[in-house]
DNA sequence: AATGAATGAGTTTTCATTCAT
DNA sequence: CATGAATGAAAACTCATTCAT
């Protein structure tokens, strides 16, 4: 009976989405299970039927974000990086990515801009959880490395299924510490912070959502383009 | 009885510093007045002798940061910007700062780097409160604009005693929205986030504190120098 | 459909036996219907299909023990006491049981020892419920007299189908209060407590189960034999 | 200000005594902190000011009983056993205690009866906690060996400060397993159970409290006297 | 006969805050 | 200034029980 299943699933996902909103607006610690239940229109005990604890909801939300971001990044790497390496149009040597031709780097640049846009838009549409992750990463708790793990997933090597993909093809791949710092604090950190503070920024700037989004996008692309030099990317 | 006064002051500031640590490590909501009292070695009720409420401690901490940063920025503006304007060596027109000579922009550039360093180091040594401010700015509460207000204080015009200083001298002073976005999310945001995540970054990167600091500083200066073009700064 | 019936019965008795274990290990109040269901491998709601409430399971278990013990005691009385009275080999007068001959009391003594053994072994193999009964008899609830009722059933007169049997034959039958106290606290109480604490005793003594059982049996028989004096039993 | 102290102490001990009553009447698990607070006329939170948890109250009660019983037993051993050994009037060899004269064993017998009475009366006046201990010893929890530990304290050797006293004087001191079983289940077990079921017994027997107490005492002394044979005690 | 979902009424525990001294 | 005791309101979590299918 798929209909019944849907109703059920609907209940659980209503809980999840209300919890996400509450966590993201007040922070996990100030959010109240009571209020989440009331807002989701369910009995408080039902929340504990689906989740072991308030914290388990948090974990679930964060894990979901991880999974989604991982897919996003993996798709980009597979589609563009791996493909170009296999076709001999890209050669990675330590922190230098050398393209075979002007044309190749141009097409890769375009792909990067598109990916950039995807990441920013993804972050924006998931800004609830992004706020939560930033919040939790500031606390000395189990999620204190959440942001780093997320960023690793997008940009760094070890432990990430993503970079194992690149790694397996080119063992020379590596970064200087400073490059990592730059990418962390001036690359993806701004993206997450932008998403996290998007609503407040829109409100306090008086601009429209898309004006703000577009401004950010162009700023971000300015940063991205700093990596491109002639036929190379220097990370 | 200055001695007694000192002892007393010491007690109060011990409370403040313990509260700061707790707020910064767990977030305001998860911090416990009980534990702050125990950690500070004072009776819980004494905290309420010095502060009206738990929230009052938070407010005090945030206000202190505001004041300190305000001084820092004001000093820079007074010492360098105002001085140069008065000496006719700098002319601000909308988002373009025109310097009279190569030499002037060079000396201003140096001042900027020094200021940059001061701001980063200030943020680092106050990273406890910085974390707290980031925390609170993520919540829908009374401090939700704290970060924006702080950044305004450093970079923007209205409402800031700082820019009133500039403003009063040059009414043409203004920014494009995109420039503001860039400065927000790729300028000072990274600085605060760097400070906030400094300890975690040091730990997870395996580098020393000063290696991390220096790497960040150079990255940051790369961003700063993007504003300098010939004899002009284009914001 | 006997097969189905069996499966069903099996389900119900699995519930009963798991409930018995849980009640006996944690006490009724700390036992959880949830856990019983999980342990029995059935849905929680099914328990409520078979039993009106958690308490109904308890009542059922206790009632079952009552019935079993009642049979046990009744069988002994019928087989030995009533038979001997009818054959004129035993005459009960108040708290003195007079046997016709040495031989009669010897054979009765043997029967008593056998009965003793039966009771101890019965208690041991039902130690789960015995624990439960002790639990409940300690509480101010509906089962607070459970132990007394049980002991009455074995040893005392009124209200027990057992002693009505004797009573109907010999109206002089009675006990002194002290005799009752002795039988209560040094007769059957030890048996139930022995059963209830058997596992813990075995574990903490380091002896084997049968060593412990046999030690107890001999101790108990020492008590029983105290009643036998010449050709009489003085209760 | 001792007066203030007293008021305070009074509050805490009121909590303790109400908790004791509730635990003993309903069992620990069915007792409600809410009701204890209401009954003790204090705010529920105050209970948690004095005790870490509901369980901590239980632990405190049990520990107190242990300490009291320990003193009781130690006093007897010091006053009578140790004294007689030192005076050469008693010689312990394995499970046989040999007295020097008729007179010595007579005076020891008297002391035993007095001690017996003390223990029974102590148990009676602490029957609340005794019930609690019996209850908890039946559960598979942290206090499951409470009864054994208590009995060890009174009658057994190792680990007890008591028997270390005897032990240090006479290394031959020991028991047969069966003797231990007898003492456990027909010696002190009945005493605790008597105390635990005293009220119910009084009520259901229709006798007065002292009639019941005296009946039990005589019964118990019958058991005690079983150990005395001529000039020896055989345990 | 059996189940997954749902619930009302608790249950222990917590916590910011206040009071009396 | 400083404290131990006290509290009201709420917090997370639980649990026996029921409902719909």
> Measured on Cα atoms, how large is the radius of gyration of chain A?
20 Å
Major interchain interface with per-chain residue totals: A-B, 45 and 45 residues
Give the helix level of chain A as a range of percent: over 70%
Mean pLDDT of chain A: 87
Low-confidence stretches of chain A: 1-5
- How large is the share of residues in beta strands of chain A? 5-15%
Number of strand segments of chain A: 4
Describe this structure in words.
Four copies of one chain form a homotetramer. The first copy, chain A, is mainly alpha-helical and 235 residues long. Chain A folds into two domains: 1-51, Homeodomain-like (Arc Repressor Mutant, subunit A), CATH 1.10.10.60; 61-234, no CATH class. Chain A is built from ten helices and four strands, in the order H-H-H-H-E-E-H-H-H-H-H-H-E-E. Chain A has helices at residues 2-26, 33-40, 44-50, 54-86, 102-125, 127-138, 146-155, 161-169, 177-205, 209-225; strands at 90-93, 96-99, 228-229, 232-234. A four-stranded antiparallel beta sheet of chain A has the order 1-2-4-3. In chain A, helix 1 (2-26) packs across helix 6. Chain A is elongated, with a radius of gyration of 20 Å. Chain A starts with a helix and ends with a strand. Residues 1-5 of chain A have low confidence and may be disordered. The A-B interface holds A 25-27, 29-30, 131, 134-135, 137-141, 144-145, 147-148, 177-178, 180-182, 184-186, 189-190, 193-194, 196-197, 200-201, 204-205, 207, 211-212, 215-216, 218-220, 222-223 and B 25-27, 29-30, 131, 134-135, 137-141, 144-145, 147-148, 177-178, 180-182, 184-186, 189-190, 193-194, 196-197, 200-201, 204-205, 207, 211-212, 215-216, 218-220, 222-223. The first copy, chain A, binds a DNA duplex (21 and 21 nucleotides) through helix 1 and helix 3.
